[in-house]
């Protein structure tokens, strides 16, 4: 097993774990009676478990997407300059979305 196989397995494992966490979060939302009831915070201000699972799973799926865009991680990706650029643009887009979400939450006063 060489390093490219190890990177491919790591990327697949990260994506699978992220998918499983998000699936578990959706199941918990359904069992708690809907989105609003499941996403209500605890009295001490902590996030509920479905929300934490959803954020963690989404972060892992984002990492999987970034790993998949890097050259030679997946067998069908060639090593070109374009793949590095797409990984960098994906990271910038993810950071921008996180920043915009934080600004909106602060603007709403939450």
Give keywords.
110 residues; mainly alpha
Task: Chart the SSEs and their pairings.
Elements: H1 3-31, H2 35-39, H3 49-69, H4 81-108
Helix pairs in contact: 1-3, 3-4
Explain this structure.
This protein is an all-alpha fold and about 110 residues long. The chain is built from four helices and no strands. Helix 1 packs antiparallel against helix 3 (about 50-70). The termini are far apart. The model has no long low-confidence stretch (mean pLDDT about 75).
Calculate the terminal CA-CA distance, rounded to whole Å: 49 Å
CA radius of gyration is 17 Å
How many helices?
A: 4
Q: Which class best fits the helix and strand makeup?
A: mainly alpha
Largest sheet: none
Number of strands: 0
Strand content: under 5%
The H/E string reads HHHH
- Arithmetic mean pLDDT: 77
Which regions contain 5 or more consecutive residues with pLDDT less than 50?
A: none
Looking at how many chains there are and whether they match, the oligomeric state comes to: single chain
Name the overall outline.
Answer: flat
Assign a percent range to the helix content.
Answer: over 70%
Kindly summarize this structure in a few lines.
With 110 residues, the protein is an all-alpha fold. It is 75% helix and 0% strand.
């Amino acid at each position: 097993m060489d390093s490219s196989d190890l990177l491919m397995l790591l990327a697949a494992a990260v994506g699978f774990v992220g998918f499983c966490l998000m699936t578990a979060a959706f199941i918990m939302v359904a069992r708690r009676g809907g989105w609003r009831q499941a996403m209500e915070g605890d009295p001490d201000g902590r996030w509920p478990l479905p929300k934490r699972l959803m954020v963690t799973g989404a972060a892992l799926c984002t990492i999987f997407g970034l790993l998949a865009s890097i050259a030679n991680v997946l067998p069908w990706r060639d090593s070109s300059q374009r793949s590095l650029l797409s990984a960098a643009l994906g990271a910038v887009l993810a950071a921008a979305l996180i920043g915009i979400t934080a600004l909106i939450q602060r603007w709403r006063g939450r």
